[in-house]
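Hi L.,

You mentioned the student needs an example of a multi-chain input paired with its predicted structure. This one should do, with 679 residues in total across all chains.
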Amino acid sequence: MFSKSQAKAFFLVGTGLCAGAFILLTIDTLKRIPKQTYSQNLTDEAIRGKHLFETNNCAGCHTILGEGAYYAPELTKVYERRGESFIESMLRDPEAMYPGQRKMVQYKFTDSEIKDLIAFFKWIGEMDLNGFPAKPDVMRPAVQTEALPEHMVSETAKLVRPKVFDQMCTACHSVRSQGGTVGPALDGVGTRRDLAYIKQWLISPTSLKSDSKMPKMPLSDQDISELTSYLSQLKEVN
Amino acid sequence: MKYKSQKVAYWFFAACMGLLALQLVYGFIMGFAHMGFDGLHSIIPFNTARATHTNLLVMWLLTGFMGSAYYIIPEEAERELISVKWAYVQLIALLVVGVTAIIGFHFNWWEGRKFLEIPRPLDYLVVVDVLLFIFLIGGTIWRGKRYTTTSMVLFFGLLMTALLYLPGMIPTDHQTMDSYWRWWVVHLWVEGVWELIMGAILSFLLIKQTGIDREVIEKWLYIIVGFTFLSGILGTGHHYYYIGTPRYWLMIGGIFSALEPVAFLGMAIFAIAMAKKGGRTLDNKTALNWTIGCSVISFVGAGLLGFAHTIPQVNMYTHGTLVTAMHGHMAFWGAYAMLILAIITYTMPIMTGRKIQDSVMNAFAFWVSNIGMICMTVAFGIAGIAQVYMERKLGLDFLGVQKEIEVHFLGLVLAATLFTAGVIAFIWNFIRYGLPMDSKR
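Structure written out for the whole complex:
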């Protein structure tokens, strides 16, 4: 068939060629990375954030760029998904944010450390990752289309879903089965509670229900008024 | 045992057994945490358990490779190790550094880079320790009477393992660059130079166990490691799909990863064919079981499951999910854990002079641990695929999905219990062998 020296030549030549090609590709890749990842936006804050991310082994539970462990959420797009104030509250007191759920270590970050981490997530979120993470692409059941069924829409106002709802509230609550499962679903909350109650609840949950586990969310006055208006329009479906 | 100094291997293997046992404990901690039982969270949070679990694996595999080299090289080079004393120093130093790192993980002291969590100051100590090891092995080969292909491939594999540790230490503030170099270490180890070590150890085991001519086995060794590098080096590309690196890696990584099973298939066919061809009557069936088992399970776990997971279109959805854990468990078990258990099973009767290799308990260890690992892989696979569909395809919330798949972790823990029973039997058998004999036989 073939001799041992031929086999050896196959090994040496093949390895040499592949290693050579790999090194050339590496040189090219290193040249292209800065443009693809917007390195010009890599601020000192973000660099410090990366350092914090490593020295606390965040990737021991989370993934970032899809790399890490599979115990806690993917963080590549967390800046866009949850927004700055949610991340800030989460880093300040993780267990308050997801009461009774899978726990995150309380790292006691300082204000500036939290800013650094947020800057890091912001930079990561902007990278061109060749399409990762993919958008969910399986069709949802017909009843859950973007347009609300007519009887769910209030007669007087158009239902506008505030961005802050998607960033913060959906972490724990769902509407039409979309969102988290930590707190109760909010479908029909507008029938069960009136406007004033909802507003007060958003200002301070424990003022209405002393044993509520819901944390006081970092909401501006405008957020509260937008959310109150939106939630009060989520009427029960008959 | 032909050479007295070969018994150094015994202590390396004993260390392996201890580290492996500890690794399983941390695996269970994580399995239970995934089921919602995280009572240890305040002492051993998940990231500590995870880093400990994977680093113990890397450590016991490296310790096993070193032990194997200390056993194989004297026999191949036909002389005693150049220094037994320094080999013991090297083992103790390695254990001290490793255990320090693991204790550090419990106090939030680490580098937090997947698989390379060991803090930087300890990295340097690892390098020094490995250089000492390379010096002892290299020196023995250098002064030996003969250079064999097996010993050269083994040495080259070990040397490259040491050298490839260095790119992981290149300083960078850039997440993508960081990842890029990290895979130079992790990927080029496990899907590159470690396969040289694997090929060499398999060759040694087959030469010894089947009695087939060295020239035939070593010829095939070249072909197999040739295929390994042909596919494995550019196969690194499958880690460069979605981390901020150019799009061409999708194609390069995809094509060369698809070739990776070829090397593993070659290894499996090679081992089975040689074992069949060999005319020698076997006095250590269990060792041959582990040898053949290693080549077959690594083909399934590393080759086939790796291939399925690294097709770019699939990886777009499975990247960063429990599907990775499915592939990872069976790949490491098949390719490297079983390899070291094979050489331990082969060498123990020779080193200790007690012929209990084919005891019922040892056979139990082989079958039960393998069945357990296959069941674990299935449990991870189901959990992973369910996670991919709910989270990535339907867009459901992360924690909600984790609740849905908790039940599969019950399956995982049960399978892991079976696996552990097998491993305990193996370790028990290891203890029953007793200490190595001093005299030449």
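You could point out the following to them. The CA atoms of residues 205 and 214 of chain A lie 6 Å apart. Chain A touches chain B through 74 residues (CB under 8 Å).

Best wishes,
N.
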